[in-house]
Amino acid sequence: MILPYPKDALHKAMLYRLLIGLLDAKDVAREIFFKGGTCAAMLEWLDRFSIDLDFDLSRNADRPKLKRLLKRIFNANGFRVAEEAKNELYFILKYQAPPGTRNNLKLSIIDLPVRANVYQPQYLSDIARFAVCQTVETMFANKLIAVTDRFKKYHTIAGRDIYDIHYFFTQGYGYNQEVITERTGVSPAVYLRELSEFIRQKITERIISEDLSYLLPPTKFQVARRTLKSEVLIFLQSAKSHAPLIQQA
């Protein structure tokens, strides 16, 4: 995973420390499936910095037991729980850092079963560990949905979602169409049309800049800030023309 600025080295180290702790605890590792920007960046599917850890939860996981195990891992690795959700495995963790620098990270383990999601073991060379991860096609499909889903649930927009979609398209990755149909209830073509309209109306240069300025090196950020929206709309227009119009049974 890239490091845009030297000041982010501590955060990257703490992110990896926590991830190693999770994967080395077998009772935890078997219940969580790695996903999101950090996963993609560590597998070289994405070329930006990422600051959080995101997982899917296995269907039959014992959540109270898992929460107890997680807190042991936090304590053993020098993290303090600053915030946690009552009914979800969601934590804001603090670690020691110099004044005025980043000193917390988010761990999210989502209990949202999606039958169409596909996972496979992957080797994370940065930390010399294996993890069960979403496939790139599954990750791409969920990222396409994240743009509108985040807005519906939290009324927020993440510029990094747009960047990730753009990068996945430029690399020629396919997306899992069944994930889109299962999660949205409409065909891929219909959803991609809705997504295009959402991006056209809601995404601004300010949104892109606020989210990406600390995740990309300065030169790459300046290019993305100017061209990201228009290029993503071009990619989506092409994808719509090749996507199924009818929901698959």
Automatic annotation (TrEMBL):
Which superkingdom heads the taxonomic lineage of this protein's source? Bacteria
InterPro entries listed in its UniProt record: AbiEii
According to UniProt, the name of this protein is: Nucleotidyl transferase AbiEii/AbiGii toxin family protein
**What is the source species?**
Candidatus Gottesmanbacteria bacterium RIFCSPLOWO2_01_FULL_43_11b
